[in-house]
Amino acid sequence: MSQSRDRLEIRGLHAAVDGQEILKGVDLTIGRGEIHALMGPNGSGKSTLGYCIMGHPSYEVTAGTIELVGADGSRLDILAMEPDERARAGVFLAFQRPMAIPGVRLADFLRHAVTNVRNPQRKEGQELMPMKEFRSELKAKMGELSIDADFARRYVNEGFSGGEMKRAEILQLAMLRPRFAILDETDSGLDADAVRLASQSIARIGGAGGGSESGAMGILIITHHEQLLEHNVPHHTHVMLGGRIVESGGPELAAELHKRGYERIRSAYPDAAAAEKAMEGSAVGA
Ligand code: ADP
Ligand code: MG
Q1: Is the pLDDT confidence value at 13 over 50?
Q2: Are 57 and 242 in contact (CB under 8 A)?
Q3: Which residue owns the Cα nearest ligand 1 atom 5?
Q4: Does 1 score more than 50 pLDDT?
Q5: Contacts with 80 (C-beta within 8 Å, 6 or more apart), sequence order
Q6: Distance 184 CA to ligand 2 centre (A)
Q7: For residue 144, which of 88, 164, 245, 276 sits 20 to 30 Å off, Cα-Cα?
Q8: Ligand 1 mutation target, pool 13, 20, 22, most atoms within 8 A of CB
Protein backbone atom coordinates (compact mmCIF):
# COMPACT_ATOMS: atom_id res chain seq x y z
CA MET A 1 0.00 0.00 0.00
CA SER A 2 1.10 3.53 -0.67
CA GLN A 3 -0.62 5.11 2.32
CA SER A 4 2.56 5.59 4.34
CA ARG A 5 4.76 7.21 1.71
CA ASP A 6 4.78 10.29 -0.50
CA ARG A 7 2.19 9.92 -3.21
CA LEU A 8 0.48 11.60 -6.11
CA GLU A 9 -3.21 11.26 -5.52
CA ILE A 10 -5.86 11.77 -8.20
CA ARG A 11 -9.50 11.66 -7.09
CA GLY A 12 -12.68 11.87 -9.19
CA LEU A 13 -10.96 13.73 -11.99
CA HIS A 14 -13.14 15.08 -14.77
CA ALA A 15 -11.60 17.06 -17.61
CA ALA A 16 -12.74 18.62 -20.86
CA VAL A 17 -11.16 19.79 -24.08
CA ASP A 18 -13.01 22.45 -26.07
CA GLY A 19 -15.99 21.97 -23.79
CA GLN A 20 -16.19 18.25 -24.48
CA GLU A 21 -15.75 15.97 -21.49
CA ILE A 22 -12.87 13.50 -21.96
CA LEU A 23 -12.05 12.28 -18.44
CA LYS A 24 -15.09 11.06 -16.57
CA GLY A 25 -13.93 10.38 -13.03
CA VAL A 26 -10.36 9.10 -12.77
CA ASP A 27 -9.00 7.75 -9.48
CA LEU A 28 -5.32 6.88 -9.31
CA THR A 29 -2.70 6.92 -6.55
CA ILE A 30 0.99 6.61 -7.34
CA GLY A 31 3.36 6.12 -4.43
CA ARG A 32 7.06 6.90 -4.65
CA GLY A 33 9.02 3.81 -5.56
CA GLU A 34 6.09 2.35 -7.49
CA ILE A 35 5.87 1.75 -11.22
CA HIS A 36 2.39 2.01 -12.70
CA ALA A 37 1.50 1.17 -16.29
CA LEU A 38 -1.46 2.95 -17.87
CA MET A 39 -2.88 1.16 -20.88
CA GLY A 40 -6.00 1.49 -22.98
CA PRO A 41 -7.08 1.86 -26.59
CA ASN A 42 -6.30 4.98 -28.60
CA GLY A 43 -8.45 7.93 -27.66
CA SER A 44 -9.35 6.59 -24.21
CA GLY A 45 -7.90 9.65 -22.45
CA LYS A 46 -4.43 8.53 -21.32
CA SER A 47 -2.53 11.53 -22.65
CA THR A 48 -5.28 13.83 -21.43
CA LEU A 49 -4.62 12.57 -17.90
CA GLY A 50 -0.90 13.35 -18.30
CA TYR A 51 -1.63 16.86 -19.54
CA CYS A 52 -4.03 17.50 -16.65
CA ILE A 53 -1.35 16.47 -14.15
CA MET A 54 1.10 18.92 -15.74
CA GLY A 55 -1.45 21.73 -16.22
CA HIS A 56 -1.61 22.05 -20.00
CA PRO A 57 -3.88 25.06 -20.66
CA SER A 58 -6.02 23.28 -23.29
CA TYR A 59 -7.21 20.71 -20.77
CA GLU A 60 -9.79 22.03 -18.34
CA VAL A 61 -10.26 20.16 -15.10
CA THR A 62 -13.97 20.44 -14.30
CA ALA A 63 -14.11 18.31 -11.15
CA GLY A 64 -11.91 16.29 -8.83
CA THR A 65 -8.51 16.76 -7.21
CA ILE A 66 -4.84 16.12 -7.88
CA GLU A 67 -2.68 16.38 -4.78
CA LEU A 68 0.83 15.61 -3.62
CA VAL A 69 0.39 13.90 -0.30
CA GLY A 70 3.37 13.69 2.04
CA ALA A 71 4.17 10.73 4.25
CA ASP A 72 3.32 13.08 7.14
CA GLY A 73 -0.17 13.63 5.72
CA SER A 74 0.51 17.11 4.30
CA ARG A 75 -1.39 17.90 1.09
CA LEU A 76 -0.33 20.09 -1.79
CA ASP A 77 -3.03 21.05 -4.29
CA ILE A 78 -1.38 20.57 -7.68
CA LEU A 79 -4.35 21.96 -9.60
CA ALA A 80 -3.85 25.37 -7.99
CA MET A 81 -0.27 25.56 -9.31
CA GLU A 82 1.17 26.77 -12.61
CA PRO A 83 2.95 24.15 -14.75
CA ASP A 84 6.41 25.43 -13.76
CA GLU A 85 5.46 25.30 -10.08
CA ARG A 86 4.34 21.70 -10.56
CA ALA A 87 7.72 20.88 -12.09
CA ARG A 88 9.49 22.55 -9.16
CA ALA A 89 7.32 20.51 -6.79
CA GLY A 90 8.82 17.41 -8.39
CA VAL A 91 6.32 16.37 -11.05
CA PHE A 92 7.69 15.62 -14.50
CA LEU A 93 5.92 14.85 -17.76
CA ALA A 94 7.78 13.53 -20.77
CA PHE A 95 5.72 14.79 -23.68
CA GLN A 96 4.54 12.49 -26.38
CA ARG A 97 5.71 14.91 -29.05
CA PRO A 98 8.36 17.12 -27.50
CA MET A 99 8.92 20.58 -28.87
CA ALA A 100 12.11 21.51 -30.69
CA ILE A 101 13.95 24.53 -29.24
CA PRO A 102 16.27 25.67 -32.04
CA GLY A 103 19.35 27.54 -30.85
CA VAL A 104 19.22 26.10 -27.32
CA ARG A 105 21.69 23.36 -26.60
CA LEU A 106 20.53 20.39 -24.60
CA ALA A 107 23.21 21.02 -21.94
CA ASP A 108 22.07 24.64 -21.41
CA PHE A 109 18.46 23.59 -21.30
CA LEU A 110 19.26 20.96 -18.69
CA ARG A 111 21.33 23.37 -16.59
CA HIS A 112 18.37 25.76 -16.43
CA ALA A 113 15.88 23.05 -15.67
CA VAL A 114 18.03 21.43 -12.99
CA THR A 115 18.75 24.78 -11.32
CA ASN A 116 15.06 25.64 -11.20
CA VAL A 117 13.98 22.30 -9.84
CA ARG A 118 16.68 22.23 -7.14
CA ASN A 119 16.19 25.83 -6.18
CA PRO A 120 12.45 26.43 -6.37
CA GLN A 121 12.79 30.02 -5.06
CA ARG A 122 15.04 31.03 -7.98
CA LYS A 123 13.82 33.91 -10.13
CA GLU A 124 14.61 34.10 -13.85
CA GLY A 125 17.92 35.90 -14.35
CA GLN A 126 19.38 34.71 -11.06
CA GLU A 127 22.47 32.57 -10.99
CA LEU A 128 22.49 29.08 -12.43
CA MET A 129 24.02 26.00 -10.86
CA PRO A 130 27.85 26.30 -11.10
CA MET A 131 29.07 25.17 -14.51
CA LYS A 132 31.77 22.88 -13.16
CA GLU A 133 29.44 21.03 -10.84
CA PHE A 134 26.79 20.76 -13.54
CA ARG A 135 29.22 19.46 -16.15
CA SER A 136 30.62 16.73 -13.95
CA GLU A 137 27.17 15.59 -12.98
CA LEU A 138 25.99 15.63 -16.59
CA LYS A 139 29.04 13.68 -17.68
CA ALA A 140 28.48 11.05 -15.02
CA LYS A 141 24.81 10.62 -15.91
CA MET A 142 25.55 10.43 -19.63
CA GLY A 143 28.19 7.81 -18.96
CA GLU A 144 25.79 5.81 -16.84
CA LEU A 145 23.22 5.89 -19.64
CA SER A 146 25.80 5.24 -22.41
CA ILE A 147 24.96 8.52 -24.14
CA ASP A 148 27.57 10.00 -26.46
CA ALA A 149 29.33 13.08 -25.03
CA ASP A 150 28.53 15.18 -28.14
CA PHE A 151 24.84 14.66 -27.64
CA ALA A 152 24.49 17.44 -25.05
CA ARG A 153 25.84 20.00 -27.53
CA ARG A 154 22.96 19.43 -29.95
CA TYR A 155 20.01 21.81 -30.11
CA VAL A 156 17.05 20.55 -28.12
CA ASN A 157 15.09 18.07 -30.21
CA GLU A 158 16.09 19.74 -33.48
CA GLY A 159 16.33 16.97 -36.06
CA PHE A 160 16.33 14.34 -33.33
CA SER A 161 15.28 10.85 -34.33
CA GLY A 162 12.65 9.13 -32.23
CA GLY A 163 15.39 7.27 -30.37
CA GLU A 164 17.33 10.48 -29.71
CA MET A 165 14.26 12.26 -28.35
CA LYS A 166 13.76 9.36 -26.02
CA ARG A 167 17.39 9.56 -24.90
CA ALA A 168 17.13 13.31 -24.29
CA GLU A 169 14.02 12.72 -22.25
CA ILE A 170 15.65 10.01 -20.15
CA LEU A 171 18.70 12.21 -19.58
CA GLN A 172 16.33 14.92 -18.38
CA LEU A 173 14.73 12.47 -16.02
CA ALA A 174 18.14 11.38 -14.69
CA MET A 175 19.27 14.98 -14.10
CA LEU A 176 16.03 16.36 -12.68
CA ARG A 177 15.23 13.36 -10.51
CA PRO A 178 11.56 14.27 -10.09
CA ARG A 179 9.50 12.74 -7.33
CA PHE A 180 6.90 11.64 -9.87
CA ALA A 181 7.41 11.05 -13.57
CA ILE A 182 4.76 10.53 -16.21
CA LEU A 183 6.20 8.97 -19.33
CA ASP A 184 3.80 9.18 -22.25
CA GLU A 185 5.09 6.95 -24.99
CA THR A 186 4.96 7.89 -28.60
CA ASP A 187 3.45 5.06 -30.60
CA SER A 188 5.62 5.53 -33.63
CA GLY A 189 9.21 6.08 -34.58
CA LEU A 190 10.86 3.78 -32.08
CA ASP A 191 12.11 0.37 -33.07
CA ALA A 192 12.16 -2.50 -30.60
CA ASP A 193 15.85 -1.97 -29.73
CA ALA A 194 15.33 1.71 -28.95
CA VAL A 195 12.39 0.84 -26.74
CA ARG A 196 14.45 -1.80 -24.93
CA LEU A 197 17.27 0.65 -24.35
CA ALA A 198 14.77 3.17 -22.99
CA SER A 199 13.32 0.51 -20.74
CA GLN A 200 16.73 -0.36 -19.31
CA SER A 201 17.61 3.28 -18.76
CA ILE A 202 14.37 4.07 -17.01
CA ALA A 203 14.87 1.07 -14.77
CA ARG A 204 18.38 2.27 -13.96
CA ILE A 205 17.45 5.82 -12.96
CA GLY A 206 13.93 5.39 -11.65
CA GLY A 207 12.29 2.89 -9.39
CA ALA A 208 13.80 1.52 -6.25
CA GLY A 209 17.40 1.56 -7.50
CA GLY A 210 17.41 5.21 -8.49
CA GLY A 211 19.61 7.36 -6.27
CA SER A 212 19.42 7.55 -2.52
CA GLU A 213 19.64 11.24 -1.68
CA SER A 214 16.22 12.03 -3.04
CA GLY A 215 14.62 8.60 -2.83
CA ALA A 216 12.89 6.54 -5.46
CA MET A 217 10.55 7.97 -8.06
CA GLY A 218 6.93 7.14 -8.61
CA ILE A 219 6.56 6.40 -12.30
CA LEU A 220 3.49 6.28 -14.51
CA ILE A 221 4.29 4.70 -17.86
CA ILE A 222 1.70 5.20 -20.58
CA THR A 223 2.55 2.69 -23.26
CA HIS A 224 1.54 0.26 -25.93
CA HIS A 225 5.00 -1.27 -26.10
CA GLU A 226 5.44 -4.52 -24.28
CA GLN A 227 9.22 -4.06 -24.45
CA LEU A 228 9.09 -0.87 -22.43
CA LEU A 229 7.73 -2.79 -19.49
CA GLU A 230 10.31 -5.54 -19.86
CA HIS A 231 12.78 -3.89 -17.48
CA ASN A 232 10.14 -1.92 -15.63
CA VAL A 233 7.73 -4.57 -14.54
CA PRO A 234 4.80 -2.52 -13.28
CA HIS A 235 3.66 -3.04 -9.71
CA HIS A 236 0.26 -1.92 -10.91
CA THR A 237 -1.42 -1.92 -14.32
CA HIS A 238 -4.46 0.24 -15.07
CA VAL A 239 -6.77 0.10 -18.05
CA MET A 240 -8.44 3.24 -19.29
CA LEU A 241 -11.55 3.07 -21.42
CA GLY A 242 -13.90 5.90 -22.34
CA GLY A 243 -12.21 8.35 -19.97
CA ARG A 244 -12.18 6.17 -16.84
CA ILE A 245 -9.87 3.62 -15.28
CA VAL A 246 -12.09 0.57 -15.42
CA GLU A 247 -9.73 -2.09 -14.13
CA SER A 248 -6.47 -2.31 -12.22
CA GLY A 249 -4.24 -5.29 -11.58
CA GLY A 250 -0.65 -6.43 -11.53
CA PRO A 251 1.86 -7.19 -14.28
CA GLU A 252 -0.27 -10.09 -15.51
CA LEU A 253 -2.95 -7.61 -16.63
CA ALA A 254 -0.45 -5.82 -18.88
CA ALA A 255 0.60 -9.17 -20.32
CA GLU A 256 -3.00 -10.14 -20.99
CA LEU A 257 -3.79 -6.86 -22.78
CA HIS A 258 -0.67 -7.16 -24.91
CA LYS A 259 -1.65 -10.66 -25.89
CA ARG A 260 -5.40 -10.37 -26.29
CA GLY A 261 -6.27 -6.70 -26.73
CA TYR A 262 -9.23 -4.88 -25.22
CA GLU A 263 -12.26 -6.95 -26.22
CA ARG A 264 -12.67 -8.56 -22.80
CA ILE A 265 -12.45 -5.11 -21.21
CA ARG A 266 -15.05 -3.66 -23.56
CA SER A 267 -17.55 -6.41 -22.83
CA ALA A 268 -16.90 -6.30 -19.09
CA TYR A 269 -17.50 -2.52 -18.92
CA PRO A 270 -20.28 -1.72 -21.39
CA ASP A 271 -20.83 1.81 -20.02
CA ALA A 272 -17.20 2.74 -20.61
CA ALA A 273 -17.32 1.07 -24.03
CA ALA A 274 -20.36 3.20 -24.89
CA ALA A 275 -18.49 6.33 -23.73
CA GLU A 276 -15.59 5.29 -25.96
CA LYS A 277 -17.91 5.06 -28.97
CA ALA A 278 -19.42 8.47 -28.19
CA MET A 279 -15.95 10.05 -27.87
CA GLU A 280 -14.89 8.57 -31.20
CA GLY A 281 -17.97 10.01 -32.84
CA SER A 282 -17.15 13.54 -31.75
CA ALA A 283 -13.35 13.46 -31.99
CA VAL A 284 -12.10 16.29 -34.15
CA GLY A 285 -8.85 14.95 -35.40
CA ALA A 286 -7.10 12.58 -33.06
P1 ADP B 1 -5.06 8.54 -25.66
O2 ADP B 1 -3.81 9.20 -25.20
O3 ADP B 1 -5.60 7.52 -24.73
O4 ADP B 1 -4.93 8.00 -27.04
P5 ADP B 1 -6.13 11.24 -25.67
O6 ADP B 1 -6.10 11.69 -24.26
O7 ADP B 1 -5.06 11.73 -26.57
O8 ADP B 1 -6.22 9.65 -25.73
O9 ADP B 1 -7.51 11.63 -26.32
C10 ADP B 1 -8.76 11.34 -25.73
C11 ADP B 1 -9.87 12.05 -26.47
O12 ADP B 1 -9.71 13.45 -26.30
C13 ADP B 1 -9.86 11.81 -27.98
O14 ADP B 1 -11.22 11.69 -28.40
C15 ADP B 1 -9.24 13.05 -28.54
O16 ADP B 1 -9.79 13.36 -29.81
C17 ADP B 1 -9.63 14.12 -27.53
N18 ADP B 1 -8.58 15.13 -27.42
C19 ADP B 1 -7.46 15.04 -26.70
N20 ADP B 1 -6.70 16.14 -26.81
C21 ADP B 1 -7.37 16.96 -27.64
C22 ADP B 1 -7.12 18.28 -28.16
N23 ADP B 1 -6.03 18.97 -27.83
N24 ADP B 1 -8.04 18.80 -28.99
C25 ADP B 1 -9.15 18.13 -29.32
N26 ADP B 1 -9.45 16.90 -28.87
C27 ADP B 1 -8.58 16.32 -28.05
MG1 MG C 1 -1.95 9.38 -26.06
Answers
A1: yes
A2: no
A3: 45
A4: no
A5: none
A6: 7
A7: 88
A8: 22
